[in-house]
Amino acid sequence: MSNLIFSDSFINGEFYKTDTHFSVDDPATEKSIVDVSDIDEQGVNNAIVAAQSAFVKLKATNATQRSETLMRWYELVIKHKQTLAELMTKEQGKPLKEALGEIDYGAGFIKWFAEEAKRSYGDVIPATDNSHRLTSFKQAVGVVAGITPWNFPVAMITRKVAPAYAAGCSFILKPSEHTPLCAIALAYLADQAGFEKGAFNVLVSQNAKKVGKILTDSEIVRKFTFTGSTGVGKQLLAQCAGTIKRTSMELGGNAPFIIFDNADLDAAIEGLMAAKFRNSGQACVAANRIFIQRNIIDAVLNKLTPKVAALKVGNGFTADVDIGPLIYPKAKEKVQQLVQDALDKGAVLIGDNSDLGGSFQNPLIVNNVTTDMDIYHEEVFGPVLTIIPFDDESEVLTLANDVPYGLAAYFYSQNIKQVYRISEGLEFGMIGVNEGVISNPVAPFGGVKQSGLGREGGHQGLNEYLEEKYVCIKI
């Protein structure tokens, strides 16, 4: 693993050292992995200049060349899959088996956009007279800046950088200060794959606000992409308004998971376990509000409770661990606060909530959750299932939609008419029907309402980094 651990920002194909450092810690052991350089203002400005220079070079490349470079990057990521996964478990905490899965998933975006790079089509437009020829074609938007979170420290990056490069854009990335090591390793491998110098820069910093302000204020940066909380997303959108940047935002969620009384209960519980407990519940698409038709609650809980109790919590490097640590102690404190508020207001706890120490949190079920509880309205970024009873289809649609977020939703039903009604009635950007894992590089990922703008993945993901140009020729 040591050959891909780097401690400095990566700018213009070189490591950039500063005199200020901070520690990247292992959330399982709470011990330092390495001290990394904290980027200074000069480094951020250097990255902007380098990215602009790289963009000029990228203009001279064609789609096939960029596709081939992306495929080399993909092959290097797969070649170093084990090393990258171990690095991810070390700095993020998720079980190694999940980290290996994320490397495959993240690499899938590189491979997909290597293919999509060659499919940026334009149009020939029928003219309104015989003296004109009308066409449109797409060009790269320019220098892109992005901020990514800690929960998926590879996939959140590849699904932004890969389409940007495929389109012909250079990229400046500010990863989470909790998980910068995977980001630097990815940039190093991209450089080894033949990315133009400055085409993928990584800025490591504890001061996301300062770095973000420089990037959003820059006239050179023409597109800004962010994955994180809705509150921070709103602030970044406001900052981008000053220079009228293109933006794409993948923000908060509060995903409903609905089990109707006609569902295959075994399949529904299997889907729920996957949708809730992956990455210890630390996912924006994690099932957050579990709506179960009232007449089957006992049957569902009888099947669900032993499965939740059987989940093993521990260090992600332990072979049979299912639930790793939360990212830091404050995350655990917030989970505990939400659970306690629910219990104080009449909810019922199922499971062992004894303190495991550090950032480790036992998986729990909180039954009889109502709309006056904080846990109903806030994302539970942890391994806690909240059970909410409902009586009929109309009621659960109203409850599911009655939040400002609209990222992902899930439901289980064997009634085909109901499948269409609920799919169309849910106000969310992504719907899992009889499926708890829906993310896929070939499909558009994104939400509606306050869950964000734009899409990542699918052919739509490439268009986020392209501008359309119309040409009118008089002949």
UniProtKB/TrEMBL annotation:
GO MF term list: succinate-semialdehyde dehydrogenase (NAD+) activity
Protein name, as recorded: Succinate-semialdehyde dehydrogenase I, NADP-dependent
The Aldehyde dehydrogenase domain, residue ranges: 20-471
Highest taxon listed in the record's lineage: Bacteria
Record SUPFAM superfamilies: ALDH-like
PANTHER family (alphabetical): SUCCINATE-SEMIALDEHYDE DEHYDROGENASE, MITOCHONDRIAL
Keyword Plastid recorded: no
Family of this protein: Belongs to the aldehyde dehydrogenase family.
E.C. numbers: 1.2.1.16
Alphabetical GO biological process terms: gamma-aminobutyric acid catabolic process
